[in-house]
Write a structure and sequence with these properties.
This protein is mainly alpha-helical. 53% of the residues lie in helices and 5% in strands. It has a domain of 76 residues.
């Protein structure tokens, strides 16, 4: 589809169109749509011109990605929410107290990964990349590949 788009753009007189340039522009507009949803109002002229439709398109795309991720995880042998979580395990709930120390107002957070600082936000693409990396490492481990080989082939990012 991108090839056809680039060819049509070239035929219209824009000779410098490449698939990489189109992907880069789409990613840029996607990031601006996400910033718009969180309240950031600084946008490029290209985004401002089609702001409403771009926000709607990328919101639908994000919902589609969320649904497909849920369907993918349901197809795997993942524990359900009703499964018993042992205290002291990495998946045990953590109680986060609010301004007052009343336990009724506290939130439960189920952790399966290291919690990040609140001022550090990851792009959706980076989160997806890390998820795919961990899933590939897990699949290799389940197939009996030694951890040394997995660490050499698919190293985890160091932060």
């Amino acid at each position: 589809m991108l090839t056809e788009l680039c060819q049509g753009t070239k035929d219209a007189g824009y000779a410098g169109c490449t698939i990489h340039a189109v992907r880069s522009k789409i990613d840029s507009l996607r990031r601006e749509a996400r910033r718009e949803r969180v309240g950031d109002r600084r946008h490029s002229q290209a985004f401002e011109k089609y702001q409403e439709s771009l926000v709607a398109i990328f919101a639908n795309e994000d919902q589609h990605e969320d649904i497909s991720a849920i369907e993918t995880s349901e197809g795997r042998n993942t524990p359900s929410k009703e499964s018993i979580i042992q205290s002291g395990s990495r998946n045990a709930p953590i109680i986060v107290a609010g301004e007052n120390d009343d336990h009724e107002d506290s939130e439960e957070i189920h952790t399966g990964t290291v919690m990040l600082a609140s001022n550090y936000t990851l792009e959706v693409a980076e989160i997806r990349r890390r998820f795919e990396l961990v899933r590939a490492r897990y699949d290799l481990q389940q197939r009996g590949v030694p951890m040394e080989t997995i660490n050499r082939m698919l190293p985890l990012p160091e932060e």
